Amino acid sequence: MKRKDWYWNLLFVGPTVCIFSLVVLVPFVMGISYSFVSWDGIAANAKRFIGFTNYVSAMSDTRFIRSAVKTFIFTAGAVVLTNALGLIVALLVTSKMKLAGVVRTFYFMPYLIGGLILGYIWKFIFSDGFAIIGNVTGWKFIFFNWLLNPTFALFALIFVSTWQTAGYVMIIYISGIQTIPQDLIEAAEVDGAHGWKLFWHIKFPLIMPAFTISLFMTLSNSFKIFDTNLSLTAGGPSNATELFAMNIYNEIFLNGNYGYGQAKAVLFFIIVAIFTLAQVSITKKREVGL
Amino acid sequence: MSEKQAKVWLWIGSLLVFAVSLIHLSPLYLLAVNSFKTREELYENVLSLPKSLSFQYYQVAMERMNILTAIMNSFIITVVSTLLIILFSSMTAWVLARHEDRMWAKVIYMTFVATMLIPFQTLMMPLIQFFSQIQQTLGFQIIDTRQGLIFMYIGFGSAMSVFLYHGFVKSIPISLEEAGYIDGASPWTVFWRIVFPMLRPITNTVVILNVIWIWNDYLLPSLVLSSEHVKTIPLSTFSFFGQFTIQWNLAMAGLVMTILPVIIFYAVAQRNIIRGIADGAVK
Q: Which intervals hold domain ABC transmembrane type-1 (chain B) (predicted)?
């Protein structure tokens, strides 16, 4: 009987673990070893072991550091705006408002369209679309080609990312708000809590779990953004919006520095891991139980 | 404020919010109207409705993007990958959750969860190297094939799916399964007859999350697939935009066709999609 159990467990767990190991674990370990070599990606050429040299070079690579800084700015902007917009809309559609269903449907929609395709749609709007609107209205201080200006191109990325994910975050907040018992809200209202007070002291602490999840999702997704970056700005103008993931991609596949690019990729993993774990443990502490 | 006044204000407020949500969707309006316009018409006024409904740009874009082949490929890859992810990860998660007190189950589960933090960019280069080597030495057709890409999706999708199923299995009572064993059923029968039907809500979530991800994914297929006949929608969109200097009306027509399947999917399965997303977030 005991022996037979083992066969069943193996049958149920085995295939997934095998495929998962081949696709995730083996490349992960290989990736760490690649990060210590110098290699141009051509199979016939030798991989030369150079220790931590790749990591040391990355620390003084100004283009890499600049892309890291840009990624932090982008992430901060996108996370704050996405969560603010998502939460506001979630509060509105869970209030007594009419047409709440339609509004929810509309806000969620962009999330289903892929980042690459969204980037192309907005590329049109920010470049030619804005130029045309600027000519027609004369408001050229705002309606000009954002993608040609290094600062505004980054704003454009933040804007598009917010537009795409606010609806997703809204769904998470809505389900968080719906778990708050109605009698608790009524009791607070009887005690004189209204508007901002009601939100800040009663609702907000109770939707902290939703907040934790939304922050986690938006933080790690913003940090790893690639598709929208590729289609909207392609890193331009002159590398001003080349974010982390794209810098790694370009180093490996365009510059052909496989070992060096992989070292950056490992650093990228470490940074993502530190930030997301720190964020989850900080916000978890602020959650309250009912 | 009288009750009537309050009602009027509620409607005014609601209509304002509704108007803002329309602005939120306006990029899709711009996309649709400009896909019908000629170049001159487009540069005259991007916001206006088209003067006539001509599908000529759609026809050209359709041919150049190989859109039907791309939709077919995206469809096959998304559906098969998602089905296999469901099959493998639900079985795995069930066994892992029911042996939670055992060391091996703990180690496997924690490994799945921990790897969820690894960004794809950390794995992409060694992944392609590894599978190219396998292809060369063992002769499996992996690179530039749909089945190879599907295999990778199962690997990348399993961690999150096992995680979601695992959490759900723990919330369902074990007594029904025990009754099944007493009746002499094998674990296989117990799982598919008793457990799997009870997993339906979380299966919905796993389907929705994987479909959205795989359908829209660009980077992994761009590294695996290169032949024209296996390209997915994001890949053919990318080469369409790279190949020609951007002729926006043509590009708009192409983009409309690429998002049409998504809009149909949303219209048909809206409730399931929104519930799936909401359930997936409660952890």
A: 71-269
Which residue range forms the structural domain that includes residue B169?
Answer: 66-243
Residue pointed to by tokens 């890409």: B149
Q: If you average pLDDT over residues A23-49, what whole number do you get? A: 92
Q: What is the pLDDT of residues B81-110, one digit of tens each?
A: 999 999 999 999 999 999 999 999 999 999
Whose tokens are 């978890």? That residue is A284
From the list A109, A116, A136, which residue is nearest B234 (CB)?
Answer: A116
In a domain, B81, yes or no: yes
ipTM associated with this complex: 0.90
- Per-residue pLDDT at B95: 95
Domain identity same for B30 and B130 = no
B191: contact with A, CB 8 A cutoff? yes
Residues B100 and B144 in one domain: yes
DSSP letter string over A21-40? IIIIIHHHHHHHHHTTEE--
Domain total for chain B? 2
Q: Which residues pair with A38 in a beta bridge?
A: A48
For residue B167, what is the domain's CATH number?
1.10.3720.10
pLDDT in tens, B41-78: 888 777 888 888 888 888 888 888 888 999 999 999 99
Same domain, B210 and B150: yes
Q: Contact B95/A249, CB-based, under 8 Å?
A: no
Neighbouring C-beta atoms of residue A181, cutoff 10 Å? 10
Q: Is residue B274 part of a domain?
A: no
Q: Does residue B146 sit within a domain?
A: yes
Alpha-carbon distances of A42 from A38, A258, B62, B283, rounded to whole Å:
11, 9, 37, 45
Cα gap A241→A243, rounded to integer Å: 6
Cβ within 8 Å, pair A23-B156: yes
Report the distance separating Cα B37 and Cα B33, nearest Å.
7
